[in-house]
Amino acid sequence: MDYKEIGKTGMKVSSLSFGASSLGGVFHDIREAEGIKAVFTAVENGLNFIDVSPYYGHYKAETVLGKALKDMNRADYYLSTKVGRYGENGVNTWDYSGKKATESVYESLERLHIDYIDLINVHDIEFSDMNQVINETLPALVELREKGVVKHVGITDLQLENLKWVIDRVPEGTVESVLNFCHYCLNDDKLADFLDYFESKNVGVINASPLSMGLLSKRGVPAWHPAPASLVEACAKAAQHCESKNYPIEKLAIQYSVSNPRIASTLFSSANPDNVLKNIEFVNEPIDWKLVEEVQDIIGDQKRVSWANS
Hints:
This protein is α/β, with parallel strands linked by helices. It has a single domain (about 5-215, about 250-285), classed as TIM Barrel (Alpha-Beta Barrel), CATH 3.20.20.100. Helix content is about 40%, strand content about 20%. The strands form three sheets. It has an eight-stranded parallel barrel with strand order 3-4-5-8-9-10-11-12, surrounded by four helices. The protein has a two-stranded antiparallel ribbon with strand order 1-2.
């Protein structure tokens, strides 16, 4: 397992890291004890960065994760959570006010059974008034950083242009990291186009969803996936090709996503301890670059014309 620094934060994190969204039952129902075991399995096998949000499972993911963390050595992991997206009783809500951001951080501390947060993110800024993020949300988080309640501040979004827009409009050092998903995987590497920019601003890069929310899996996409049918079909053909080579597309996808040394870490999420171990084994094996070329040839023109690029 490789370890790389997130920007200039001093946090050296595992190239593969644990996304805790699955602990909230975001993808399907989970057995809580198994989910807690998945967290221990990740950390005990070298994954030292954990990402969560109050939004995942409407506080459930933080609550379940907290049950694991209270029995862990705080020095063994870095913890990232978020503000801005929430929900209750099955209804999603958004609040990017400075007041709510501050309250949310302290509430997360209680649920997670920790006394500081290593990285606090403004969650999915595309849903916000981004001027409010600049003038209210981020200043509130910077104030908490100055108090030591949080150590570092970041922003997350699907749209890379939104991340750049905010960074361009705040004082240097306000945003220390970005989290972007579905843009550094076998079918879409748009994130690579922005790495020079982020590095010029001393902003660290965290990647997520190496399987492109199921596109790059033998199981295929869930019904709600927004990808066009042509891309779904191309990725299904790629998965079949990998299967014929006895090389699961999930393995190739994860190996590819962690292969870029300019990206600090790639998040995956699973509440299954066996899947956690399997993914760790994937990144500890050499990647088949010839198969990467074959898969990307199959995906072809769909590679950069996808739902995630809009």
